[in-house]
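Q: Predict the assembly, please.
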Amino acid sequence: MTLGFTLAYLTLIVLIPLAGLVWRSASLGWGGMWHVATDPRTLNALKISFGTSFVAALVNVVFGVIVAWVLVRYRFPGRRIIDAVVDLPFALPTAVAGIALTALYSKNGWIGKWLDPLGIKVAFTPIGITIALIFIGLPFVVRTVQPVMEEIRKEVEEAAATLGATRFQTITRVLLPGLTPAILTGFALAFARAVGEYGSVIFIAGNLPYISEIAPLLIVIRLEEFDYTGATAIAAIMLIISFTMLFVINLIQAWSRRRYGYAT
Amino acid sequence: MKHSRFSLSLAAALFAATVSFQSLSAAHADTTLLNVSYDPTRELYKDYNAAFAAKWKADTGETLTIQTSHGGSGAQARSVIDGLDADVVTLALESDISAIVKATKKINPDWRTKYPHNSAPYTSTIVFLVRKGNPKGIKDWGDLVKDGVEVITPNPKTSGGARWNYLAAWAWAYGQYGGDEAKIKDYIGNLFQHVPVLDSGARGSTTTFAQRELGDVLLAWENEAYLASDEFGADKFDIIVPPQSILAEPPVAVVDGNVDAKGTRKVAEAYLQYLYSAEGQTIAAKHFYRPAEPKLVPADILKKLPELKLVTIDDPIFGGWAKAQPYHFGDGGTFDQIYKPKK
Amino acid sequence: MRHELPQPPEPATKAWHPATTESRTARFVLIGVALAFLGLFLLLPLISVFFEAFRKGPAAYFAAFADADALSAIRLTLLVAVIAVPLNLVFGVVAAWTIAKFEFKGKAFLTTLIDLPFSVSPVISGLVYVLLFSSHSALGPWLKSHGIEILFAVPGIVLATVFVTFPFVARELIPLMQEQGTTDEEAALSLGANGWQTFWHVTLPNIKWGLLYGVLLCNARAMGEFGAVSVVSGHIRGLTNTMPLQVEILYNEFNTVAAFAVASLLALLALVTLVLKTLLELRYGAELAANGGH
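A: Predicted assembly structure:
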């Protein structure tokens, strides 16, 4: 019965609207879809979206794991505040984040004015997009890795140390492999979220076709050209990619639950 | 499943929501009119709505609430097509209203003949806003492609204003190169090589230029240029009026299908008609739109809008919106052809 | 997203064997890196919001809230959250219950569908409702002829918000419930409790903090959603503008102080959410550790 309710609500809120989208773009046929997908402008937008999201997710993996490690293992004043701050991007409206980041990184902003003399332009370039996406994605990595880190039993590390492993070896050979599924999940979540992000990116991206135009913006542009089919086709392509990625994440999780016996 | 407690609290929440929403809509009693407009007209219609509501009250005793919605001209037209209940549309481009006519038949095809001057109660043109003292010496369209000049303009695909910018540049190049299309496209292509940011709307570009201090020259609506220099201080910018520009005619129309359904035709028509009155024209001129009937406007207000050579969209160069829109801005149009990424 | 509330017990640090921690220097460097990264990427933008909001003094700041359009935006935002959050709360609990307590085929598939709104671009979330309800769709004109307005009215905004915040509660509860397993419920049932009693007296107390956290995040996102709402709102001043849309409008009107003032209210909401969550953890840390299932 609960399954019935879950499915009914899911169908009503998520499936029917998305099916409408797929149905609409299906009117294009495969040839039409392929034509939209391989249009250089679309390709570039997808490349920019996926490229910047990939870099942002990578940065988030490195720093997210460090942040999670620091939060789990060390005790220092203000730790709880820091722990809470990690969730900020979940709670802060994306448009606010976008405006704030643009104000910071444009050449008369607090950070931009130091970078500009060095010839580094952040706002209105792909770097700016990446920074906004780092902001959006960080909590996904920290919050996926943190609980798993908390469950690592210290006996394992002690055993490794007793067997003569250096601390570095213990971390890279013993701890990291156990964390890998969680890190992968965090990466994939941050990546998937970043690909679709619109509100925060739109302010800081230069929105130049082929250079800093993200795929969601291209959807909006197509809509404003009254080109519904074009817009839905790009949307459907992104939808398929997101779905595939999430499905893989959930398979990783199911797999790691069986293998390691804990949730990621 | 016995969801009694949950459904109870859910029902309570929904009830509270309904009540608060009703009180929200109760604030808008009597007649309401929805004007769906484009970005730079916010200030104009704020004043005009107050003036018209006062006049309507004096004439009929009815309290009139005028709601406005602003956004990119194309996006706004799309909202109306998708079902936004606009009584009147006041957009940047004739082709945006034509899109509504074509997609929904909610506006009669003869809308351009309903009001004087092709249903454009005010016009505007495209001018240059430059940094104080004009350090890059920008005086005419040719100067925009000089080395080291950065030009700020919104994206012609998403912004009505940007299309006028584009066409104004095109018209200049047309005269310059004697109509040689290859050379015109070269110039336009070169021009867009100088554009570092393509915002999606005219306002976004103004913010980029004025607040983010990016670029040397902003191609802007005349009214937008004056507004920016008012907002950010006249000591920061100069307005350069090029010798030739384009006559932009932002049109207005009653959305026939919607006003007939809502019974607001009378007030909607009066609302647009009043734009042509002395008061309407003066308000437009005060906001730096060029009034269609300049003789109704005090001379000291007009003085700020200098004479220049203006090319219209119906000029043979363009052949009207119905032709220019797909030719330049449609998928694969001249804009798509000239836009090459910087490598 | 899969944050679990249980924290390791505080004294654990002292019990660490030296061989299982890093050198002092390494620790300081790591803490430093983490703090610098968070400061640069998370805190600085937040501070700049408040800095801009108060740039012209508190009077200008508070004047921003006297505006009728701003007030109606605040009201609309609250209204949308009040409808969307309870809906997703009920759904989240039921869905998590289904997924965690029963075994059935296609579970990973179902979980993926629940996750989907997370990674669907907000623009697409708005677009799907436009396609569904616009006046040239099959459904739109029919609803309209029955006096029901969805698009460019409150129902459309609510729907888009429900879609975007759909997974928050469920996503929070699924791992928690999966870890707790079904033994407690089985015990209750064998002692003669019915399904509802079991849920109310056994399951709910076990998940209440996770639930609350999910609701807080769901609420924050519901109030802050921009992209999806922007597509379906119609942007009618004082009527269908939510707070994030109002921020954009004010920003576009060169009214920076007011824009950031409204933004700061949203940021404040984010902060309150985080403070509440931290307080919950502090206060119930022990209890959580006890019944967290470890």
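Chain C has one domain: 12-291. Chain C touches chain B through 37 residues (CB under 8 Å).
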